[in-house]
Write a structure and sequence with these properties.
Elements (H helix, E strand, L loop, with lengths): L147 H4 L1 E3 L5 E3 L17 H35 L33 H7 L6 E6 L23 E8 L7 E8 L3 H17 L5 E10 L4 E9 L5 E10 L2 E10 L5 H15 L12 E5 L24 E4 L3 E2 L20 E10 L9 E8 L3 H16 L1 H4 L3 E12 L5 E12 L5 E11 L2 E9 L7 H15 L3
Antiparallel strand pairs: 1-2, 3-4, 4-5, 5-9, 6-7, 6-10, 7-8, 8-9, 11-13, 12-13, 13-14, 14-18, 15-16, 16-17, 17-18
Helix pairs in contact: 3-5
């Protein structure tokens, strides 16, 4: 019969004659299954057997790793050595028995035939004799028969096959010696552990996929490129601004074409941006920009032509709008000595907000600054082009920054430039609104002098005796106030040199017009009442103030003799707009006075300021 196969008959080694047993065969009597045997530990020779660990007749225990692995389900294998891999491990499928015969002639290898005893299954029959193991014969591999529950029986002494039942002498149907609890349930525990790990992985993976789905971090169509968001929605790889957006030599040539432009300095952060535009040298913004770039350009020309361009980007439009308002207010006040506001242009089609102002630094020579403040969304632009002798037109200055604005407008959420247009306008108001400010008044001596002003208060002036009416008490006005301006820091100025501005308010424009007519006519006919007076009426002034309000003025130069060789000279004007009238009276001398052009500019500014009050 073949050696392989599950139906191979098993030999009952217990009934084999004594003289046929191998004298050197190892004893395969099963050990009690109380606890696992110690692996590889030598037994003490001659020590008494204990219920937990029987002696091995003075020989070393055979390591469980020497036995071939056997996969089992149940019942417990009664042939396993204590501590072997097969002790207490259930059989999962029929096990092929080891070879029945070894080489009988080999002197060092003994043949071992294990027998089944009824005692192994709980039968009261006596246990078989144990063969002594030779001290020089190494233990053989165990021959572990398949359970009778699978084979169905055993071989009798005569070689015939005897069906075996549970607990019978011819089979292995009964339960053998029991191993540890862990050995009994090791496979079940392993299955549960592996199952728990798999379940945990599934849960973690599921949670990850759900999170990715709900947060929308994974694109539903990853193979299709999505459209890049606008700069207002997310961070753009292209910065809002850079040094590339600053004015270049080519841009400066659009401002003044025939100049020898060169780049002087470029700053890439706020700390390095040390240049200041006119009237903004003391400006300190309440909100810090996220980006700041500044460049200055100059020429070697005699007129000292130069330009400064600065770009500031803010976190949002609200912050940029706030800073723009602060800068316009500082520019409107322009309280830097020796600055004087020359004029202003309204700029359209270039930015969301634009403020232009032309300023004269009345030194010797006079230095003119054409300043342009722009806001395009979150970006603010300052341009100041300066030249001695005459100002650079604002239209040319705007041409030098148009490229810069066009490059940044979309990235900074601002309006992009179109066809720019310009028109004369009133300078922006500055407190106290409705009155002249010190930056409206020119120096008399180039390069020296500073104007100061009091706050508007009670009208106390008595005039210069040509008015022919009490200014402080004349009926008609509903309100009357006075503000006094004094020129200091000029050694050539007469003591107490200054100017009084008196403002009268009426209920109606008609009442204001009647007052202007009376006061102007009284001054014009002063020489008829005062023999020592000389009156010269200057050209009249008319114009438009804020909100297109019409204004008009009559100006005079009046000289009154105080002795045979002394006199007092006055420059004065009466201005009307709507329901308001201003009377401007300045005491001057022949050697220290405003030029006619300067005084005409002051009178016009008086009317413009009245329209803002």
């Amino acid at each position: 019969m073949s050696e392989s196969g599950s139906n191979r008959p098993r030999r009952a080694a217990a009934s084999e004659p004594q003289d046929l047993r191998e004298p050197n065969a190892a004893d395969d009597t099963p050990a009690p299954g109380v606890s696992p045997a110690r692996r590889g530990a030598p037994a003490e020779v001659g020590s008494p057997a204990t219920p937990d660990e029987p002696p091995l007749d003075g020989h070393e225990a055979v390591d469980a790793e020497d036995s071939p692995p056997i996969f089992r389900s149940s019942p417990v294998n009664p042939f396993a050595r204590p501590g072997s891999a097969s002790a207490g491990v259930p059989v999962s499928e029929p096990v092929l028995p080891p070879r029945d015969f070894e080489d009988l002639d080999a002197p060092t290898e003994g043949r071992r035939i294990s027998g089944l005893t009824p005692a192994a299954f709980g039968d009261p029959a006596p246990a078989p004799r144990r063969s002594a193991v030779s001290s020089i014969t190494p233990p053989e591999d165990e021959m572990i028969p398949a359970p009778a529950a699978l084979t169905g029986g055993g071989d009798g002494p005569d070689g015939t096959h005897t069906p075996g039942g549970p607990g019978g002498s011819g089979g292995t149907g009964g339960n053998g010696g029991s191993g540890s609890w862990f050995e009994h349930h090791r496979r079940t525990i392993l299955i549960w552990v592996v199952g728990a790990i798999v379940a945990a992985l599934v849960i973690v993976l599921g949670a990850y996929l759900i999170t990715r789905t709900t947060t929308g971090t994974e694109s539903p169509t990853p193979t299709v490129p999505t459209q890049s968001p606008s700069p207002s929605e997310s961070s753009s790889p292209v910065p809002d601004a850079s040094v590339e957006n600053l004015m270049t030599v080519a841009d400066a040539e659009l401002v003044v074409a025939d100049a020898s432009w060169v780049e002087i300095d470029t700053a890439e952060d706020r700390a390095e941006a040390v240049a200041n535009a006119a009237c903004l040298s003391s400006e300190r913004d309440d909100v810090n920009p996220t980006q700041t770039f500044q460049r200055t350009l100059g020429t070697s020309d005699d007129d000292m032509l130069a330009a400064m361009h600065q770009v500031d980007v803010y976190a949002n439009v609200e912050a940029a709008t706030q800073v723009q308002a602060q800068r316009v207010a500082s520019l409107a006040a322009c309280d830097e000595v020796p600055a004087r506001i020359i004029g202003s242009l309204a700029v359209h089609g270039l930015a969301d907000e634009a403020q232009q102002l032309t300023i004269a630094y009345e030194n010797d020579p006079t230095q003119f600054h054409t300043v342009l403040l722009l806001r395009n969304g979150r970006a603010l632009t300052i341009v100041d082009v300066t030249r001695d002798g005459s100002p650079v037109p604002a239209q040319q200055v705007s041409a030098g920054v148009e490229r810069s604005i066009a490059e940044m407008c979309e990235r900074t959420d601002g309006a992009c430039p179109s066809t720019a247009s310009f028109g004369e306008t009133v300078p922006p108001p500055s407190p106290p609104e409705g009155w002249l400010i010190t930056a409206d008044l020119p120096r008399i001596t180039p390069g020296t002098g500073a104007w100061t002003a009091s706050e508007p208060g009670e009208l106390t002036s008595q005039g210069m005796n040509c008015e022919n009416l009490p200014l402080a008490t004349e009926p008609g006005p509903t309100a009357r106030l006075q503000r006094t301006y004094l020129l200091t820091q000029d050694a050539a100025a007469p003591a107490g040199f200054g100017m009084d501005e008196m403002v009268f308010e009426f209920e109606t424009p008609e009442a204001a017009g009647a007052f202007v007519t009376k006061l102007g006519n009284n001054i014009a006919t002063c020489k008829d009442r005062v023999l020592t007076a000389t009156v010269t009426e200057l050209p009249g002034i008319s114009g438009v103030g804020a909100d297109n309000a019409a204004l008009s003025a009559r100006s005079f130069l009046v000289q009154q003799a105080t002795s045979d060789d002394t006199s007092v000279l006055y420059q004065l004007s009466v201005v009307v707009t709507g329901q308001k009238v201003a009377y401007l009276l300045t005491t001057v001398t022949e050697d220290f006075r405003f030029s006619d052009e300067q005084f005409a500019g002051v009178v016009r500014r008086v009317g413009e300021r009245l329209t803002q009050g």
